[in-house]
Amino acid sequence: MCTLEKRGDLFFLTLTGDDEHKLHPDTIASILSLLEQAKSQSTRGSVLITTGHGKFFSNGFDLAWAQSSGSESGAINRMHQMVESFKPVVAALFDLPMPTIAALNGHAAASGLMFALSHDYVYMRKDRGVLYMSEVDLGLPIPDYFAVMFVAKIGTSIARRELLLSGKKIKGEEAVALGIVDSAAHDSAEGVVEATVSLGESLAAKKWKGEVYASIRKSLYPEVCGMLSLTALAKFSATP
């Protein structure tokens, strides 16, 4: 489902396999456990890079699993379970004491896109891969903390309209133009990862205090952190 590897200052969280990396409860639990592991092993200069294998970064919640419950009420309960269990993953990324970078190897849809946007930086491929919020097409509401995140992370109403209200599949160059991702100048999954490694190494060289970095990040997004029950406080120290 996913792995965590540490190379020097860089942690690599990888969604494994060649499928859609759907966010089943087991996958969500695995991601959360690995984020907690990265946090426990973090030092000054640590950076997290998240990527995946295959065509998809993540195609969102496992709707097939929800629908396999055998009843409408069961499917609704399973959807609610995934929405609630994913919330701590977003909180863990906001609370992680290091810069975070999403390297989108392919498509990022619905909660898979939410997962990407929970990182500080998002890099995307130029040659393939789209961003897609499928909820409007599927007739599903946006969870409350998703909505607050999109307002916080996507700066214009036009960009939010294009992503959330049109059902449009947005490719790399347009995603950069709309201010949704930071970069889409990469012709392969390997190229995206190489670019994020370069960024990660430059950030790691700063040797910032992780607790302070996380505190500043949280202070930038008070509405999101309020929804996630996170505080932005950091303890002052005489050590710079």
From TrEMBL:
Pathway: Lipid metabolism; fatty acid beta-oxidation. The keyword tRNA-binding does not apply. GO terms for molecular function: delta(3)-delta(2)-enoyl-CoA isomerase activity. Keywords: Fatty acid metabolism, Isomerase, Lipid metabolism. It holds the Pfam family ECH_1. SUPFAM superfamilies: ClpP/crotonase. It catalyses: a (3Z)-enoyl-CoA = a 4-saturated (2E)-enoyl-CoA; a (3E)-enoyl-CoA = a 4-saturated (2E)-enoyl-CoA. GO terms for cellular component: peroxisome. Its EC number is 5.3.3.8. CDD domains: crotonase-like (cd06558). One of its GO terms (biological process) is fatty acid beta-oxidation. Belongs to the enoyl-CoA hydratase/isomerase family. This is Delta(3)-Delta(2)-enoyl-CoA isomerase. It comes from Microthlaspi erraticum. The lineage of its organism: Eukaryota, Viridiplantae, Streptophyta, Embryophyta, Tracheophyta.
